[in-house]
Prior knowledge:
Number of strands: 18
Distance between the termini: 68 Å
Largest sheet: 8 strands, mixed
Number of helices: 16
CATH superfamily of the largest domain: P-loop containing nucleotide triphosphate hydrolases
Radius of gyration: 24 Å
Number of domains: 2
Structural class: alpha/beta
Shape: globular
CATH class of the largest domain: Alpha Beta
Helix content: 25-40%
Amino acid sequence: MSPTQRLHILTQLNETELETLATTWDIFAHPHQCPPAVAANGAARRDPWLTWLLIGGRGAGKTRAGAEWIRAQALGLPPFADAPVTRIALVGETEHDVREVMIEGISGLLAVHPRRDRPSWSPSRKRLEWANGAVAYAFSAEDPESLRGPQFGCAWSDEMAKWRYAEATFDMLQFGLRLGSQPRQLITTTPRPTALLKRLMVDPSSVTTRAPTQANALNLAPTFLKGVMARYQNTRLGRQELDGEIIEDRPDALWSRALIEACRVDGAPQLTRIVVAVDPPASSSKRADACGIVAAGISETGRVFVLADDTVSAATPSAWASRAIALWRRLEADALVAEINQGGEMVEAVIKQVDVSVPVTSVRATRGKWVRAEPVATLYEQGRVKHAGCFPALEDEMCDFARGGLSSARSPDRLDALVWAVTALTASAPTMPRVREL
């Protein structure tokens, strides 16, 4: 039909019919947003998969696909489901992500239902309830133990490559997928070369669907596509975030994925000293660098443990200072280490305005980032630095940092903060002077 003919037909439909049309997913879904299927004896059937990995770029329609798949499971809608699944798990990076993206988001579960079928969302109970008795429970990957006990017939995990406790959360979820004849799970994520994701991709019970951002161009703002393509196309970051590629190690980088995995531990022992390091941006504009905020501690044996990455983007000075101090309080840290190249004494003044009691150690960079980072990379190779958890964004910077900087040409703010933290803890002097040059 021509656009005029389509418009003519649409004007003849009433409000209920228009809503039905808009929520009939198989009319509008891209191929990559539909569960993988094969043809057998001339009839379509679902693959005998247990895990569906939907890997795509930013804006490729992963969230919509996940919400529609869960809707089909809860209501038993063919061709995606044979019967309703009564118990469902929704797992996101944080509770905020589950609620704001997976449930209440513009492409989330509430939005994809017509009003007559829309489930009831109880934020305090973290559960969605459909009229037919199906229930979906919300879980955060920050709390793997919350998945211990409940059981499910299917699950949707979003942005798994970003989960801090990915292995533990995934394991706990598998123990809960035990209802029905064939419990299944959908994982929607922008890729990162994590050990878990790569292992799942080669698992015989998994199927993988890939999609670049461009595949969903009709549903994205043209200015967005034009802007991000012009800036990131053919870069390592663009290949990962737009094309949905898993980007492996950069050959000339100081760190490798294998090295970081070898340095990963489940938790830190008793620590004798903890610091929070801050690499402040030059300004607070939207285009400014992020404020790197990384915490680390050192044990009695002299081994350093990276504890947190609370880096924040486009924040005002008071905002990043508050965030750094909040982490300092949460970890009961001994000092806050702040680089003063960008703001001089103003950096310490901003921190003191938020909390005058915070002990601030100012540090100044007199050498290049590569020279400062090399000794820290050596400590990793010697096994003297460990990661107490998973820090995907920080680790991405580490494995993309070479002599010329990051491949995206951005400032390695998280890495800078990490270098300051590790250097402060491993300094030979028993106490750090107010300003240490490095």
